[in-house]
Specification:
With 476 residues, this protein is an alpha/beta fold. Helices cover 40% and strands 11% of the residues. It is globular.
């Protein structure tokens, strides 16, 4: 013990000049003493390091456009956390459209932030699959580790093996049974689950964790994800509710407060798990503990409440430590807890469906009166509102034509009992959507909220012939 103490004193004496110089160059920044560093680095880890296997990560932002700033910000932030945690870049794959950082509307060109006053999270993020290469086909090929199946992009895939641990984070708009890729390609729940089953059958991972940020995201796993795949999925919402965008400008458009950004900077579930990860030592925090922290925080995002964070699959994996999937940086103060504290920002949270309108309304109200900018903002806002009203009207007219009575129509909006998937016949659902779009035009990301209606048409045994007749009558 005396020898150790003498060594500590010697280290401190030799380092004191360097420490004072560092403090002089960085005023206000606390400097860890050489002794503290020595003791910290010499101390045993709270949990054993991985005895075997490699960490892999897949990060996906499923949208495009400046109005959806938050999704790419989430993914970039996640990459930085995993990189600092020790994951190798060759083992991390990123899908994002990459049209935000240098967008003409970005007040900080080349910079993306994920919270008010936050640091840049864009720098160093690999451009694996961007633009037109961020496709569903490439997504599935990457998950399956199929290098010959990818087109364009970096060619990187999840080349994981039987001893490896895989982390997938996906953030996007969502709707019952569907999430999307940036070019509006649908990722249906049954297709995604089948890809994960194939990954399991190939013995291509030991365990997998899947974090999903999207509206009705629980419907992607509800009644579909078997426990025996050894996949633990956490979703931002249950199968019937929207998830929330956060760090948004105030929706009081008459306020004199000036906001640098007129978009939401993050998503409630996403920033909750990432900010928790940055404040805990992931060598000791379990997946289950993070689930509870994020669940509590996400549930109180608005005066009317928030969304219900859910878990699916093999929940026994919740006992594993986050370090297994995310690595960790050394945390000196591991006392952070969100429970009982105020949310970290006074900025607003809104439904994912309302985030777009919030952006357009802010652009309109903050633009100078009688300016070209105001007229353009007004045009964008009215086009979005009219587009939504038109889709709602067409779907409602089709359901009225098919069923007639209000009682039967309301049945199409009813969620199935807990534990049941959205629909029994996924081919039927995809066909119903295709018939609608062939006759009535694009369903649009907003219109995807009607997926439960189309699913319940299939559950009610409405035929393809009947749907064709109804869509043609209403839309042609």
């Amino acid at each position: 013990m005396m020898i150790l103490w003498a060594l500590v004193v010697l280290i401190n004496n030799n380092a004191c000049i360097y420490g004072r110089q560092l403090e002089h160059n960085n005023p206000g920044v606390p400097v860890m003493s050489a002794a503290s560093r020595f003791l910290l680095e010499s101390a045993p880890a709270k949990t054993p390091l991985l005895e075997e296997g490699t960490r892999w990560a897949l990060l996906v932002a499923g949208s495009r456009g400046y109005v959806n700033y938050r999704h790419q910000a989430d993914v970039c932030h996640a990459f930085q956390i995993l990189k600092k945690g020790g994951l190798r870049e060759e083992n991390m794959i990123v899908f994002m459209y990459d049209d935000i950082a240098f967008n003409e509307n970005n007040p900080r060109p080349g910079v993306i932030i994920n919270s008010p006053g936050g640091h840049d999270v864009y720098g160093g993020v690999p451009k694996d699959y961007t633009g037109i290469n961020a496709t569903v086909e490439n997504l599935y090929a990457v998950i399956l580790g199929n290098k010959s199946g990818v087109t364009g992009g970096s060619g990187k895939v999840l080349g994981s093996g039987p001893n490896d641990h895989v982390f997938i984070f996906y953030t996007d708009h969502g709707s019952p049974g569907v999430i999307e890729m940036p070019c509006d390609e649908a990722v249906y729940a049954d297709d995604l689950i089948n890809v994960l089953k194939r990954k399991h059958q190939a013995n291509a991972y030991k365990s997998m964790v899947f974090y999903l940020e999207a509206c009705e995201s629980g419907s992607m796993f509800e009644g579909l994800l078997p426990k025996n795949l050894n996949i633990y999925a956490i979703t931002a919402s249950n199968s019937t509710e929207p998830s929330l965008a956060t760090y948004c400008p105030d929706y009081d458009y008459t306020s004199t407060t000036s906001y640098e950004y007129d978009v939401c900077l993050g998503d409630a579930f996403s920033v909750s798990w990432m900010e928790d990860s940055e404040k805990h030592d992931l060598r000791s925090e379990t997946l289950g503990h993070q689930f509870q922290v994020v669940k509590s925080r996400t549930a109180v995002q608005t005066p009317d409440g928030g969304s219900h964070v859910m878990q699916y699959g093999n929940t026994l994996l919740s006992k594993e430590i986050l370090y297994t999937y995310m690595g960790t940086t050394i945390i000196l103060n591991d006392t952070y807890t969100w429970e009982g504290a105020a949310p970290p920002s006074t900025l607003k949270s809104v439904s994912q469906w309302e985030a777009d309108l919030l952006h357009y309304k802010h652009k309109f109200y903050k633009a100078p009166k009688d300016s070209t900018m105001r007229l353009q903002a007004q045009k964008q806002l009215l086009e979005e509102i009219n587009s939504r009203m038109l889709v709602d009207h067409k779907v409602n007219q089709i359901t009225t034509f098919l069923l007639g009575t209000q009682r039967d129509i309301s049945m199409l909006h009813t969620a199935r009992p807990k534990g049941m998937p959205l629909v029994d016949d996924w081919t039927c659902l995809k066909t119903m959507v295709k018939i609608y779009e062939e006759n009535c035009g694009s369903l649009s990301r907003y219109g995807m909220k009607h997926m439960r209606t189309f699913a319940n048409m299939c559950n009610a045994r409405i035929t393809v012939k009947e749907m064709n007749a109804a869509a043609a009558r209403i839309c042609k």
